[in-house]
From TrEMBL:
Name by which UniProt lists this protein: Uncharacterized protein
Length: 138
């Protein structure tokens, strides 16, 4: 579940594409969610809980199949991990196979927004620099 879905759940009256001034910057939208949560907005907390629930459900099959030791959360999930991880872990524990879930835990990345895309670019650049023949020149 992406940040747009979280925003729609938490603030259906102010979701992406609704209203006169739409904030599309994910950092600003996340800051808004964090502010509303700090102010005690129950819809935000309920939306974050729902994200955690779906994250745990979604992780169950890959954990059962591949038996990883950790699932690293990035972007907005990392910033909201204090609430998301316990819910996701509970759901994973409920749906996963005992042998697999006993070794697997969720962890929050501290690399910030866009870490996955930056890492992907780094991998591509490293590959091209290490072997320039990987690029086809037309």
């Amino acid at each position: 579940m992406g940040l747009a879905a979280l925003v729609r759940l938490a603030t259906p009256d102010h979701a992406y594409g609704i209203g006169e001034q739409v904030v599309r910057d994910p950092e600003k939208r996340l800051a808004e969610m964090e502010q509303r949560r700090a102010e005690g907005d129950l819809r935000v907390d309920a939306a974050i809980t729902e994200v955690g629930r779906w994250l745990g459900r979604g992780a169950a099959s890959p954990v059962n199949l591949f038996n990883p030791r950790v699932i690293v959360l990035g972007d907005y999930c990392a910033r909201l991990s204090d609430r998301i991880i316990p819910v996701a872990q509970t759901e994973l524990d409920r749906l996963g196979l005992a042998a697999a879930i006993g070794r697997c835990a969720f962890a929050a990345s501290d690399l910030g927004f866009g870490a996955a895309s930056r890492e992907t670019v780094d991998v591509v650049i490293e590959r091209v620099l290490s072997d320039p023949t990987t690029i086809a020149i037309s």
